[in-house]
Design brief:
With 213 residues, this protein is an alpha+beta fold. It has one domain. The protein is built from four helices and eight strands; from the N terminus they run αβββββββαααβ. It starts with a helix and ends in a 6-residue tail after the last strand. The model is unreliable at 143-154 (pLDDT under 50).
């Protein structure tokens, strides 16, 4: 009999608490006493070193690719054990000239002081930079065992995806000769304008041959 009397009371308390929580969640964040927040406890960045830069980056290839990676187990169907990931990556590969590699005879000024010849190292490609804001996993299919395993652990394969994407972007830029050609053309234009402002009317800029791959 006592239980019958306390049951409606407990139920009423439960309903009241649930209703209160619903009302609280509908309140604006400034009025909600239980609103969540993110507190940044990270220490300030630490300066490790300062390096001189003698490079002139003269062109940039903006690239996008799709990685379709599949991990499977021999003799086991993919719907039981396996994973397939579609990763869209966007990034850039810069090309430029390293002026630190200039030799002692790289600049030759004519006797009339109005002509100059400049010999530069061949343009080179720099490591690819993957844009994390424009890159994402668009689909991930897992086998039954992999889905069950992900409940107990969350393996992060993003590092592998970014490393592979960076390698593929670099390969794509290297396969297109226009990237290096544009870098040399832009460098020549820049130096011609710079030396022209110094009084040189005849400016010749040449590049060393690229090393054989």
């Amino acid at each position: 009999m006592k239980l019958a009397r306390t049951l409606p009371t407990a139920l009423a308390v439960f309903v009241a608490v649930a209703a209160a929580l619903v009302v609280v969640t509908l309140l604006p964040a400034s009025l909600n006493p239980f609103s969540s927040r993110t507190v940044d406890h990270s220490p300030p960045p630490v300066l490790k070193s300062i390096e001189d830069i003698g490079e002139y980056r003269a062109s940039s290839a903006n690239l996008q690719l799709v990685l379709d990676l599949e991990h499977d187990t021999r003799f086991v169907p993919s719907f039981i054990r396996g994973e397939r990931v579609l990763f869209v990556a966007a990034g850039r590969v810069d090309a430029g000239v390293d002026f630190r590699a200039l030799g002692p005879d790289a600049v030759r000024v004519g006797a009339d002081r109005t002509s100059v010849e400049v010999t530069l190292p061949a343009a080179r490609l720099y490591p690819a930079e993957v844009d994390p804001e424009a890159s994402r996993v668009v689909n991930r299919d897992r086998g039954v065992l992999d889905r069950v395993g992900s409940v107990f652990s969350s393996p992060d394969d993003s590092q592998e995806l970014y490393v592979m994407a960076s390698k593929r972007l670099s390969e794509a830029a290297a396969a297109d000769p226009r990237v290096l050609q544009q870098a040399e053309a832009n460098t020549r234009t820049m130096l011609t304008a710079l030396l022209g402002s110094l009084g040189f009317t005849d400016v010749t800029v040449t590049f060393e041959a690229r090393p054989a791959e």
